[in-house]
């Protein structure tokens, strides 16, 4: 049973990441081919700072649904971790 729950949890996380990557391809990849490269350029000392800064930047950079924007911020900040 525990194993089953773990498996379901893991696949939900996987599906979530896939959807975000798709959003990146759809909204960003036309101009920024590499998500990893963008992620490495994020400014800020901590993940929180990077996320806050990117979130503010994206408010004006592209017209995005706030939910999509939040997902993309999480995705890129996640990629920026060493
Ligand atoms: C129509 C082309 C285009 C699209 C689509 C686009 N960008 Fe950009 N982006 C640019 C250009 C040009 C710059 C550099 C000039 C500027 O700062 O606006 C830039 C700059 C940036 C920067 C600042 C760092 C840097 O490399 O200068 C970030 C972060 C960024 N974009 C993220 C994104 C994300 C995330 C998406 C998807 C939601 C996205 N962009 C979609 C064209 C685009």
UniProtKB/TrEMBL annotation:
A GO term, aspect molecular function: electron transfer activity
Domain of life: Bacteria
InterPro entries linked: Cyt_c-like_dom_sf
Protein name stated in the entry: Cytochrome c domain-containing protein
